[in-house]
Amino acid sequence: MAGTIIADTLTHSTAGSVTTDYVVNGSAKAWVNFNGTGTIAARDSFNVTSLDDNGTGNYDVNFTNAMGNADFSSQVTAGYSADTGRYGENLAYNASFATVGARNSSGTSVDNAGIAVTISGDLA
Amino acid sequence: MQTPDFKGTHLFDRLCWAKENLDGVQSDYRVVYEDSIDECAKILVPDPNWMACALQGGILPPVWVYHELAKDEAQPDFKKHTRGYLLHTTEPMPAMTEEEAIEYLIMKDIPQSVWQNWDEGNRPKMVICKKEQLPSTRTWRNAWRISDELNLAA
């Protein structure tokens, strides 16, 4: 493919070297920022096929390129609300999708307008 | 823009190309479905960047590839995918219409138990609609169900 650089190691003039395995393994494999209120919709994303609105504060993120297994890492954040507080949570993992949610400071599932999910791990 | 010849190219690399070269397409279609009598209706929402790939053609694998991977994941001793190469080496799908893309999406991301016999039983388990047809507020979101009075011929 045009513009391809094949290298096993990246070396900085003074800061040392890092193998490209670090870059590949450390890069996010999927991410999405979506509005989980109203008729939910993704603002932007990568490697996401669709979202499932499963109910109040509960959503699936379906992957286009599946993960290699269900042991990937998922980071979920939810927009803060001054009155109730908010946090994102991981609910379930599958190689093809991640179920994520949002709760308020009382632990009740709530819809959230600013949910961001980042997936790291090995691809299928 | 012409899609490069991606046959044999890792799907992730194809998605990288698409992210850089295609504008997202927000679809107005939504798929409402029920996969459990104990849970509220779920709503499938197409991803804009994925929809752009579907309309462009030459990027996404055929949906049967996902079904094969799903079979592997359903095995009780499943540890990791060993047939991920199917995603990367299978001839990509040609350009789809938005409606064809929604059909593909249904077969990829909704359980087969729903779409294979969606209209059997006393009422439909799945409805394709426009987002404007959904309730405008979510106050009772966990009580949403597909209407019993739904006119399937409409």
Task: Describe the structure in your own words.
The complex is a heterodimer of chains A (124) and B (154). With 124 residues, chain A is mostly beta strands. Chain A is built from 1 helix and 10 strands; from the N terminus they run E-E-H-E-E-E-E-E-E-E-E. Chain A has one domain. Chain A has one helix spanning 20-26, and strands at residues 9-12, 16-19, 30-35, 41-46, 48-55, 58-63, 73-78, 86-94, 97-104, 115-120. Chain A has a 4-stranded antiparallel β-sheet, with no helix packed on it. Chain A has a 4-stranded antiparallel β-sheet with strand order 5-6-9-8, with no helix packed on it. In chain A, strands 1-2 form a two-stranded antiparallel sheet. The mean pLDDT of chain B is 94. In chain B, strands 2-1-3 form a 3-stranded antiparallel β-sheet. In chain B, helix 3 (63-74) packs parallel to helix 5. Chain B has 6 helices and 3 strands, in the order αββαααααβ. Strand 5 (48-55) of chain A pairs antiparallel with strand 2 of chain B.
Mean pLDDT of chain A: 91
Low-pLDDT runs of 5+ residues of chain B are none
Element string of chain B (H = helix, E = strand): HEEHHHHHE
- Beta fraction of chain B: 5-15%
Are there runs of chain A of 5+ residues with pLDDT below 50, and where? none
Number of separate domains of chain B: 1
Extended strand count of chain B? 3
First-residue to last-residue Cα separation of chain B: 37 Å
Choose one word for the global shape of chain A. elongated
Distance between the termini of chain A: 21 Å
Largest β-sheet summary of chain B:
3 strands, antiparallel
* Principal-axes shape call of chain B: globular
The major pleated sheet of chain A works out as: 4 strands, antiparallel
Structural class of chain B: alpha+beta
Q: Main sheet of chain A: which strands, in order across?
A: 4-3-10-7
The helix content of chain B is 25-40%
Tally the helices of chain B: 6
Radius of gyration of chain A: 17 Å
Oligomer: heterodimer
Give the number of helices of chain A.
1
Helix percent band of chain A = under 10%
